[in-house]
Amino acid sequence: MDDLWEISQAALKKAQDKTNVSIHAFVLMQNHYHLLLTTPRANIDLFQWIFANAFTRAIQAKTQRINHIFGARYKWNLINDQRYFYQVYKYIYLNPVRAGLCKSVIEYRFSTLNSLLKFEITDPVIAQHGRARVISWIDSSFSAEQVGCLKRAFVKSKFQMTTDRRERRYITFDDP
Q: What CATH number has the domain spanning 2-154?
């Protein structure tokens, strides 16, 4: 994973430099990754192509693999509400905890939350609330209902939580 982390950072930097996106969160898992970014030029497809191409070529060169590295096309969601942004931000960083790879987000090394980076990251949540408070908030986890609601929201191209009032519970920054 250490080699993959280095490769992913270089690929992110290359894609960021060529597309002028702002990266807010990135978590590399064993078989996938999660990325939260802002694309002022609406060029997510170009960013993703450059990132995936650089990432794949570097892995192929290192491993002599010739087949695809990623099994499926990437998926993206448009987030146009700050409440939704917070939900996705927390979901991304909690992924390794939910997968049982660590007990706290601070323990997972392959995340922009815990790493010295080779590319620029713009983290408005930490800038507004401070690192220690953000880590505590992320570690507070989601309920099973909240996770289900988030997963259903990810299916749509425009991220939107359910309108069912029983399930509609935003995880605000002030929640425990």
A: 3.30.70.1290
